[in-house]
TrEMBL record:
Species annotation: Candidatus Thiomargarita nelsonii
Alphabetically ordered keywords of this record: Pyruvate
Source organism phylogeny: Bacteria, Pseudomonadati, Pseudomonadota, Gammaproteobacteria, Thiotrichales
GO molecular function, one term: glycerate kinase activity
InterPro entries: GK-like_C_sf (IPR037035), MOFRL (IPR007835), MOFRL_protein (IPR039760)
Membrane-crossing segments per the record: none
Name this polypeptide is given: Hydroxypyruvate reductase
Domain MOFRL: 101-205
Gene Ontology terms: cellular component: cytoplasm
Pfam families associated with the record: MOFRL
Length: 212
């Protein structure tokens, strides 16, 4: 969770939440009453013997990857729209020096009324693949650290400059798939999906880029 916010990690079940600054007229009386009763205050007795410790965070995953690969760690958190993040990351990697670059990410995808297959990592990866069409010097792994990206058992995707051509040969249009939030179907056709199974941890998503 960005910022290691205990109120948000795992929905903050054992953490007192701050009351939202709501206008008195913003909600009906019955709903304001429920909200006031739903979240115990920090000084409540139920929190007296509860101690919480963060034992893993996104930086832990990035550092572990760096130690394995002996790489330069681009210590950056990527948030916001997956589409814009994928485009920006792809452009940055094209302009970068040769090497391996590692980011953490927590992006979002606006879903249409009837979304297709995929997750935020797959969406981001397909956007990057569109930027890199025909290149042979850039590669990107985008995956959930828990081994899951969206519905199903897909962990993410490993894409390159040939991804677009491979999927297109199977009769799919990348832009249409992105508009339908159907990146997973395109990446399945291009052979770029990855499967890891459950990893036993979850410290957001990890992005690993290679520039040769």
């Amino acid at each position: 969770m960005p910022g290691d916010n205990l109120q948000a990690i795992g929905s903050g079940l054992l953490t007192p939440h701050e009351q939202l600054p709501l206008s008195k007229d913003a909600l009906p009386d019955w709903l304001r009453t429920l909200i006031a009763q739903a979240r115990p205050l920090a000084e409540s007795a139920c929190f007296t013997n509860i101690k919480q410790h963060i034992i893993a965070r996104p930086a832990t995953a990035r550092q572990a990857a760096c130690e394995v690969a002996k790489v330069y760690n681009h210590d950056t958190l990527i948030v916001g729209e997956a589409e814009q993040a994928g485009r920006t990351l792809a452009q940055q990697l094209c302009a970068a020096n040769s090497g391996i670059y590692i980011w953490s990410s927590e992006t979002t995808v606006h879903l249409p009324e009837n979304p297709g297959q995929g997750g935020r990592c797959q969406h981001l990866a397909l956007v990057a693949a569109c930027e890199w069409a025909g290149r042979d010097d850039v590669f990107l792994l985008a995956a959930g650290t828990d081994g899951n990206d969206g519905p199903g058992d897909v962990a993410g995707a490993l894409i390159d400059g040939g991804t677009l051509a491979r999927g297109s040969r199977e009769g799919l249009d990348a832009q249409q798939c992105l508009e339908r939030a159907d990146a997973g179907r395109f990446l399945a056709a291009s052979g770029d999906l990855i499967y890891t199974g459950p990893t036993g941890t979850n410290v957001m998503d990890v992005l690993i880029g290679l520039k040769v």
